[in-house]
């Protein structure tokens, strides 16, 4: 299935998240049934990232957003273990530091955009400035409401430089979030992560959904589309995300660069070295 | 086998690389025979990095040096696929930029040291400033010869902050390097990487060995030891490196941090949320 067609937010359209089933899982019924496809996508990602790294004509920026426990960390790990770590960077954007707050909201983001040949993953991003910032009224409406255009302008600049931008909104149901909180609560290895705010934020669910819907409508563009990934099933989320990335990279028509040296000359150097007893 | 004991450069001792067999491979005869042990070390690394990330009391800096084709990239990949990419960064240090050259040699290095909770891998490092810089006489002897002390002072500061430093010199024979060049020459996916300098650098082999030996003697310290890793066999190199890292991390006695919240209160919040029909 072409998940790009199925899961894209068509530029300019208003979507209602309640019309999307966060438990959607495509044709496979279980993780086990999807394993072969998952491995296939991982292999494609490995090969395509190598091409991107070698060719150095494109950069790839992957943006991950989603409510707490939606699976941003897990998605990062899944996508990046397919790739050579030398060509990738993950940046997690938390509450801005004092220095970051003293600059415009895109200043800290701009410093972490991937260079040509590189893959950058943003675990949370500049979109927090129209999400948590809006929901908790950290800046007035006239400030955050101008940011959609500012974000689109910023992303246009990145695209003009050769960056491919793919944005994933990981969508889970409130029941699934609650279940994941419960698992965390009973897992001694993850209890340290639990914050008092986890449950308090749930009271803002509807406001978050409204903010997500506006973000998706206003910032899904032809050059930097948003995809809504049904994420109740982690394995489906991983499959959809990796296939969308692989399909997008494949469309770039990247080619292995030609050798910068004359291979015949190098072969002669090799034979000269190989026939020298001592080196 | 305790590879730390076997492969460490004892602080203050002068080592002769020619006394070390780059084809050493421990008790296993083949890659297949070593697979179980390799997987065991990967699992240890995964668990220990999670602890480091959770506890945030230590940072880990891994320094990789070695002649061209010694396997620095492959080692990076092997070690880092065991770890959550959110807690890791690889920095490749190439020829310094104009801005970097306008600063002291540790300026660019310092910007990439890992924060507490993070793992940083340096693919080449500040040691290039006593290696290639020395061999090709890019600065006078009185400049590079002072750098050993400056490096030790710098590393002391990192260690004082909570950084564990492990330095690996990946050691291959000239014959093995030649064989790897040959493979690269015949592999269409890697021909683009071939540089005219590859063979020219081989003429400096002995000078490099002398520079490596000085670096190992002067900068293997109790707080930031160098290990010489026999690297003709890639699988042995991976096994030795990952075991040394895991053993070193284990000695830190890291503990999962305690929850910052009262779990009973959170459980009540969970039950309150779970019994609310709508959210």
Automatic annotation (TrEMBL), chains A, B:
Belongs to the polyphosphate kinase 2 (PPK2) family. Class I subfamily. Transmembrane segments: none annotated. It comes from Defluviicoccus vanus. This is Polyphosphate kinase 2 family protein. The keyword Kinase applies. InterPro entries: P-loop_NTPase, Polyphosphate_phosphotransfera, PPK2-rel_1, PPK2-related. The keyword Ion transport does not apply. Pfam families: PPK2 (PF03976). Residues 36-251 form the Polyphosphate kinase-2-related domain.
